[in-house]
Every structure is written in structure tokens, then in C-alpha cells.
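Worked example

This section walks through a single chain of length 450. The input is the sequence exactly as stored; nothing has been trimmed or padded.
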Amino acid sequence: MTAEIIIMNREAVALAADSASTIKGARGQKIFTSPSINKIFALSQYSPVGIMVYGTANFMKVPWEIIIKIYRSKLKNKKFNTLKEYSDDFLDFLNQHTNLFPESEQKIYFERYISSYFLLITASIKNKIKQLITKNKNLTTKEIEDIILKEIEDIISKILKEYNRKLKEAETIPNLPKNHNEQCKKNYGKIIEKAKKDIFEKLPMTQSLSKLLIEIGLNVFSKMPKLVSPYSSGVVITGFGEKDLFPSFQSFFIEGIINNILHYGKYGEININFEVGSSIVPLAQKEMVFNFMEGVNPIYEKEINKIFSQIFDEYPKIIIESINKLKNEEKTELKEKLKAMSNEWKEKNIKRRKEYRRKKFVNPVINTVTMLPKDELAAMAESLVSLTSLKKSVTIEAPTVAGPIDVAIISKGDGFIWIKRKYYFKAELNPRFFEKYKKEVKSDKRVQKK
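Given that input, the structure is written out below as C-alpha cells.
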């Protein structure tokens, strides 16, 4: 995990990121904190555009730093009118340079992703069975088993159909070939069959349900994913296009490459304009930033909402059951009326607290950020990442946010500027590193003039 943040106003974008990286392996995971771990990069050496990565440090086993620097070398001094065009070009680069990601790695990714998705489906089935057991907890074990045997096929059918429905309604990955599913079935059909056998072997599967499961296994790779998997990398591209007056950012979570097609989802975008003057966007571990912005920890807020829901749901029942003069039919009718009123008041309560937080906590900060100069934007971004790092260092949780903090500012006039940047080497001992960079820039400028 990591802590990263983007703060934008009409003048500039501030980016900050820590130096912790979690590497997952077959026997567990290890957290590294190192000066060589970089998460912020200039996407272009000539344009005011940056890129940040979080989540998995590698994409299909290739470090993101290598991918980004290959792209930057390929981009050279080419410029685009809008930030979106930079994002589209970077995604096209991943699609076109599939030679970086061999077929063997694509198969490994396919197998991991389809297994994790099928396990997600079985978790939904098991959860439904648990609800059925809870509902009939007063029956004997044999009676419960008979009910499960009777209803299990219907449960599986409904859940599979619901998953397939959501996939069909989901946004299709852009530029997908018409025969993508057929090609996936041809190349990876055996992998789907094996995952189906391994994960669903203890569940009763009719022939029609088995076909539906294969259809789901193919559809999942033609749609933009909505759930971030353990193999996802978050990628954020931010800054200014040539004709952009104000900054913006585009965010994606990128899964892998299947059948030489990039499997990714769009996470969101924010455009600063004449109506929206600033934005604060935390990435990865967000709790402390939300705490700072809204005056309450989101985990605590969730628990408060849960408690209020229980109160609103249970209190009317307690009152009605205490009225002995009412008949059972009258009690049932009154419970339904009070339940509807209770749900309405519950929603009003949540909305009122949200409006209060926005008015008293969020808006004052956002309004101030709109007016901050570049150096103050950078200081604020660094402080919010430091706050998350401090919280992790004084708790018994794993230190998933730690190490030196890199900070950069992107502005229309000055471009991509480092405010704080760590090196894994001493700058004074490596003058050739900086000379090489200057020579490359000068060479590109001469080519541009010609």
C-alpha cells in the first residue's frame, strides 16, 4: 500500500507520495522502504504532465518505472492539446507494445484473474447459504440440510445470472475487436474449464449453469472492471494539455493484458474550471486525509451509520411490542408504517450530518486551496502524506506508509518541477547522470527546430 495525494487549483497541481512498497509473493508479502522506490514521474520532458502509480509496483512483472520511461522516450517532444489525449496515448502505448508482455505472462494473468473472480462468485453463493441457515436456525441440522439441497441450484442460478447481467451492463473496453471473446475462448478456454472445475466442483452445476459460468468467464475480460483486484495498479495522469487553461487529472486502474488487449477500468476524472476552483484527491490509503477534510474518520463514520440504522430499525418494534392492547395484525401494520417513516428519518439524518461536515469542515479547506500559491500547495500535499505516515508509525499496523516523501508541482508556465526528490545515489558522485539528461534534452530541441 501507499499514501499519495493530488491537490489542484487553477494555477497548479501538487503531487506527493511516500516511499513504501508492498511486494506480494507466494509465501506472503514484504514491505520495502527505499530511496529507489519512485511513484511520481514526469510523463513528458517537455510538457506540464505528470504520472503517479500506486497499488502493484509492477505491471505484468515489468516495473512501472521502466514502462513509463520507455513511453517517455517514445513520446519525445510530441505534445497534445488536452490532458485526455495524453492519457489516451499512454493507454494506446500499453496496447501497442504487447511485446513487453509475452503470451506466457498473459496466460498467467488470465489464470490468476479468472480464479479470483470465480472465488468472488463462490463467496456470494456461500454468503447466501449462510443467510438461509440463519433464517432457519430454529430447525434441526437435517431439516436445514434438506432446505439447502432443495434451494441450492436456484441460489447458484440467481447469483450467476446477476453477475452476468452486471457484466453485460458494464462499459465495454474501448477498441475491443468484435471476435475478442471467441479468441479468448480459443486461447484460454482450457484455463476457464480448469478454474471452473477446481472452484465449483463441490457445487451442483447443471449444463446450462456451466455454460453461463463460461460466458461470465469470457465477458469479464471484455468489460471495464469495477472492482480493484490484488493485481491492479492505480495510474493517475495529471497536468495541462497545450490548450488546457486549467489542470485536470485522469485516473485508471490497470489490470493486465489478455489476448494482446489491455484490461483496465476508468476510475475517475476531475477538471478544474471556472466553476470548480480546487480539488483534493487522496489515493490508496485515504483515511487520514478524510479525517482532516471532514472532521471524522471514515471508519468511525461508517460505524456511526450502522448504529443509527440499528436504532431506527429496532426502536419502533420495541415500542409497538410494548403496547399490549394492539392485536397482532394491528402491530404488523403499524410496524410497516413506522418502518417506512424510520427509513425516511434515517436518510435525512445521514444527509444532514453530511451537509454539516461539508459546510463546517470541507468547504473552508477547499475554498482556501483555491487561493493557495504553488509552494503552499506543495507543503499541504507533503503534510497530508506525512500525516498518514505518522499514523501508521504509531500504531501496531504494518508500516505500509513510510519513508521519504517525493513532492512535485506542475504548472502551465513552469512545467514539471520537483520540490522534493530522493535519489538512491549521491548526486555529487554522479555528474554524468545529469549531463546525460541535459544532452538528451538539447538533442531533442535541435531535432524539433529542424
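What to look for: The chain has three domains: 3-101+228-286+374-449, 103-219, 293-367.
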